[in-house]
Structures are given as structure tokens and as C-alpha cells.
Amino acid sequence: MKSINPATGEEIATHEELTQAQIDAALDRATATFASWRDTAMEERTALLSALADAYHDHRDRLARMATLEMGKMLKSALAEVDKCVAAFRHYAKEGPAMLEGGSIALSSGGKADLVWLPIGPVLAVMPWNFPYWQVVRFLAPCILAGNVGLLKHASNVQGVAALMQEMMGVAGAPEGLFQNLPIRSDAVVGIIADDRVAAVTLTGSEGAGRAVAEQAGRALKKVVLELGGSDPFIVMPSADLDAAVKQAVTARVQNSGQSCICGKRMIVHADIYDAFLERYAAAMAAVKAGDPFDEESDMGPLSSAEQRQNVQDQIETMKAAGATLIGGETMPGPGAYMQAGILTDVPVDPALMGEEIFGPIAMLFKAADMDDAIAIANAIPFGLGSSVWTKDAAEEARFVRDVQAGMTAVNQMLASAPEAPFGGVKRSGHGRELGPFGLHEFMNLKSVYRK
């Protein structure tokens, strides 16, 4: 597997895939480590989480640089991502033990049932490249606290990141086998899911990948958590702070070069302010500077690969053929996978078009006649991950929270994940939750112990 710098097109490194014998050996290590780790004291688990936080903090520059080299993330954004991982490790180290206090329930027949949270075993994580540290840590931190062990199948283009994450486990003093990076292709995942040594699987990725993993997990009768992205609505009403909404709408599309699952992609603007919004939005998007991700003066780096840029260009052409108009969004010359930020207007309200998640710095802009129309446009796709609503009207806010079909809604701000809050979607955006106590409990056995 090759790591290619998307800013230059140059090869960084190659990584050898594991053989089947090496995969089997890794699964044996996971099984053996789980047998002992599940019995460790809570103090030992939280101490390891704190040590991991220290390791990521101490090596933040090196970790961030690798993410920038492998997938083009702005260095300042990569540093922020590493810091977010540090916060997640510290959160579960401090608050996690209280999340595992099961309590007890009085029974109407007499007696009680004590509730005990227990680990279930090795968990396979199939993770994407766009937030190569954070996507993994939001599975790994609760996995360690729960008493489980982790197996990572990372995206092939960020194997340098995956190797560094494995290294950080050693720096923190983790037992061998507690977390293992598996440099494998997607076709090897089927056999691992079916293997009795693996208890469950979590995936962040495309709808197609989610269907494949869910099917295999279903055949094996194993728990699965899926986060499959979406095409999130960003609704702006007349009472909103227009300047703030425009600013955040720009960030939503250029953060991580537009390659974020939960950032707004469909800007749905009330007709009364549509023209004013478009004028300011177009000017702000045109001012975005795409350039060297190591240069602090750049606003965004390249897309993750030339292939990913071509995917976005193909989506643009499909929408233009359906009647949409592109403002900006041109491909930039040179060896890197750069493109300018852009806006698609006049996109037909067609689920097939709107449901196409544009993983790049391109926004789709829609005019809504009223609140009902805005909600209808927001919900007219098969996905429901996140959403952002901009209004100062309390009644409108309550209606959006109730009726926009999404796992998460941000009010007068851009949606962002946090270690403390559950993360996940509805509809074809997946099922299950990560982060917070709910993410911790997803891969645990809630045992009822009946007593007189």
C-alpha cells in the first residue's frame, strides 16, 4: 500500500500488507490480551488513557505532520485533531469510571437486579482517512476503558498514521495486543468479521462499505456500529445573524478541504434573505486560498488524492447537466490535488442529486419558500447524520430540532463532535453511537444480576 502526498503527487512510503498467517497471529494476540485486560483494575485502564494523552501531546508535531503529508490536511488542523484526541483520552480517563456504574433496579416481584457493565472482547474498527487520528481515537478510548481490545483496519492511504498510532501505544506502556494496526485491504475484512476471535465491528465510511460490513456482521450475528456520512443541511432563516451564518457556511465547506462527514453541504436559505446570503457567500468562498497545507497563510490544502478530486469533478458535471450552475470550484493547475472552493446554485430538489455527498469544497445552495419548505428540502434525502440551523426564533428552533431528520443538530453554529456527546446518525447514515457514555456502552454486555 502506497502513501502519496496529495499536495505534490509524490510517493512518501510503501507499506507491506499482512499475510493470512500474520492476521491469524494478530487475532491470537488480541484474544490472549483480552483474557488479561478484561480483569484489570479500573485504575490501570484510566492510567493507560492518561499515558496515551501524554504520548499524543508530547508527539503532537510529529503526528500532525504525518497526517498532513499523507492526506493533505492543513497542518494547523492536524495539530488541532491531535489535541482533540488528547482531550478524548483525558475525558474517558476522568469521567469514564462513573459511566460504568450500573446501579440496581427494584423488582415488583421482590428482590432486585444489579446492573453490571462487562467487556465483550476484540473489536474490529474499519476507519477512513479524513480524520485519521480522531476517527480511531473515538473508538479506541472507550474500547480501552471498557476492558476490550482493538483491531484497526485503517484506510490504505494513511498507513503512516496507523503505524504511528500503534507506536504511541508502546510509548504509553500498553500491553502488547491491546491495540493492533492491521495493514490489510478491504477484502480481508470479511474473514476477520466472521472469525470467532472477533466480538464486534465498527465502521466509519461510505454507504457501500457500511452495507458490506453490516451484512457480514449480520451473518456472524455480531454487534456493529455504522457511521456512514451524509449530505447535511445548513438552514438559514431571516432572523439569523447573516454574517455569522455566512462565515460558518464557508468553514463548513473548506475545513479539511470539504472532506468532513458532519459539516453542512446543502445550504438551505429562506427566500427573504437568499440573495443577500448568496452575494456574501460567493465573495467569501472566492476569497478562500487553497495552497500548501504547511503554509499558515493557506485556508485549505489539497483534496486527499487526485482520484478524490476527480470524484468531486464528476459530481459537479452531473449536477450541471441537471441544471445547476457552478460559481468558482475550478480545478487548479499543478501536481497537487487542489481545487478552488465553489457553490452550486439551482440544484434540482432531487433526492438522487442531493443525496450525493460532495466530499470536497463545493456547497449546494437551495432557496426555501418558508420553514416548512426548508424542512422538506432538508429531509428529502436518504441520509440523516448532522444538521445546522440558524434562527433567533425559539419556535423555529424547536420545530427544526423536532422535525429535521438527523442524529445531531447544531443551533446557530457549525456542527462539531465532542468527546462528551453521543455521535451518530439516522436513516442511511448508519446506526449506533460513538463518544459519550453511549459510545462506551455500545460494545459492552449489560448484565442483570438478580438478587433476593
Automatic annotation (TrEMBL):
Record key words, sorted: NADP, Oxidoreductase
Annotated ranges, domain Aldehyde dehydrogenase: 2-449
Keyword Oxidoreductase (UniProt): yes
Keyword NADP tagged: yes
PANTHER family for the chain: SUCCINATE SEMIALDEHYDE DEHYDROGENASE [NAD(P)+] SAD
Organism: Sphingobium naphthae
Protein name, UniProt field: NAD-dependent succinate-semialdehyde dehydrogenase
Family in the record: Belongs to the aldehyde dehydrogenase family.
